[in-house]
Write a structure and sequence with these properties.
This protein is mainly alpha-helical. The chain has 2 domains: 196 residues, Growth Hormone, Chain: A (Up-down Bundle), CATH 1.20.1250; 186 residues, Up-down Bundle (Growth Hormone, Chain: A), CATH 1.20.1250.20. Helix content is 82%, strand content 0%. The longest helix has 30 residues. It is globular. The protein starts with a helix and ends in a 5-residue tail after the last helix.
Length: 401
């Protein structure tokens, strides 16, 4: 009986990856951007509003939903989130300007992503008590690799139907597929939990903390600050990937864009890898390993990266791998440190660190290059951020993990 449950539970991972891939289509917004600028006669600053709004609503509604996620059937929450995602994309096809598109795509669609995002992670975490970090990391592959699949599809739809009808086609597809994919989702019942608890390798949660109890721990402050730092570093790197390849490594723009697919794969692989590492080691060691890899890649760029294509590819593969890693370290650490019972609510709060890191990281990368005109300065800045993160990890996790 337990063996059957062990086999059947993998369907939640597979379905979770597919759902995350659909939700991650929000990251493919750049495919629509130029066409929207032409359609609405606007500049790049205005055309970015729907995307920035979508990310903001995604983070806000993930936090809000986390407070209630375990009170309702997971299928119901995915259906609500999926309905809003579909509605946002379909309504985007009727947008008459950037304001209505921002409301439809950004507010409605972004809220839908935030509502549905945490559910597959919460479900697989309960079905895989002996390898929660790995299971959650595998589900997150879908979100990380989504642009590899959905961006080419969206590009084809824009070319064939036009930008607004492309929103309609994708929104209709989400409306049909997300309810179908959500149907099997459920938390294990008491008897299933008893069976899963006997699976080899299960370690009972040392403690089950509420959000109020979690925020009073030293490890929460360490986790939060490190997630901000890891996100800042990762998104600073992503923001300057193309310009570094062209201006620093001496590559052609098209060649750099071609390698973005390779970097995206490493970003996706970082999630299950660091989820597994966080399972096997403690959270502090996973963080220190990530910082060590980022520092090594940055030093490699400083020492030998100038006009060196090979060094650029190796270093940025490592850097993208670690951004994906932090999106697994944070949820896996939240569960490991504070238990599975209140995981969705607790991680909703921890995830707000990603929003802070995103704003700081995206704004920092361009600003540093504008002021200092030197990639060496940016790589040094990344190393300094990592060293600060190392100190926080060593101090904050000393006696509290």
């Amino acid at each position: 009986m337990v063996e059957n449950k062990k086999k059947s539970r993998w369907k939640y991972v597979i379905l979770g990856i597919i759902i995350m891939m659909f939700l991650g289509t929000v990251y493919s917004y750049s495919v629509f951007r130029i066409s929207l600028e032409q359609a609405f006669d606007i500049g790049s600053a205005q055309s970015g509003l729907p995307y920035m709004t979508a990310l903001a609503f995604y983070a806000i509604f993930m936090f809000i939903t986390g407070r209630y996620i375990e009170r309702f059937n997971p299928r119901t929450i995915i259906l609500v989130g999926g309905f809003l995602v579909s509605a946002g994309w379909i309504l985007s096809s009727f947008a008459t300007g950037i304001v209505t598109l921002t409301i439809a795509y950004g507010c409605i669609g972004g809220a839908g992503v935030g509502i549905a995002y945490g559910v597959p992670m919460a479900v697989v975490a309960k079905w895989f008590p002996e390898k929660k970090g790995l299971a959650v990391g595998m589900v997150l592959i879908g979100f990380g690799l989504s642009p590899l699949v959905t961006a080419p599809l969206a590009r084809q739809l824009v070319e064939y139907f036009g930008v607004l009808k492309a929103f309609l086609v994708l929104g209709t597809g989400f409306a049909v597929l997300l309810p179908f994919l959500s149907y099997p989702f459920k938390y294990p019942d008491e008897s299933e939990l008893m069976g899963l608890s006997r699976v080899k390798g299960v370690i009972e949660d040392v403690r089950e903390l509420t959000m109020a109890e979690m925020v009073r721990t030293r490890s929460f402050k360490g986790l939060y600050l490190n997630f901000v730092t890891g996100t800042m570093v990762g998104l600073t790197i992503i923001g300057m990937t193309t310009s570094t390849g062209v201006e620093f490594a001496g590559m052609e723009t098209g060649e750099v864009i071609g390698y973005m697919a390779v970097f995206a794969v490493f970003n996706g692989l970082g999630r299950p890898s660091f989820g597994w590492i966080t399972d096997r080691m403690d959270s502090r060691k996973a963080m220190l390993l990530s910082y060590a890899l980022i520092i090594a890649a940055s030093l490699l760029l400083i020492v030998a990266g100038k006009d060196n294509k090979s060094v650029y590819i190796i270093s940025f593969s490592i850097l993208w791998f670690n951004l994906g890693g932090w999106l697994a370290i944070a949820p896996a650490s939240t569960m490991k440190l504070y238990g599975a019972k209140n995981y969705a609510r607790n991680y909703g709060l921890v995830f707000t660190a990603y929003g802070i890191g995103a704003i700081a990281g995206v704004s920092t990368s361009g600003l540093l290059l504008d002021i200092h005109k030197s990639y060496y300065f940016v790589f040094s800045y990344i190393i300094a951020l990592c060293m600060a993160g190392v100190l926080v990890a060593l101090i904050m996790f000393k006696n509290d993990h």
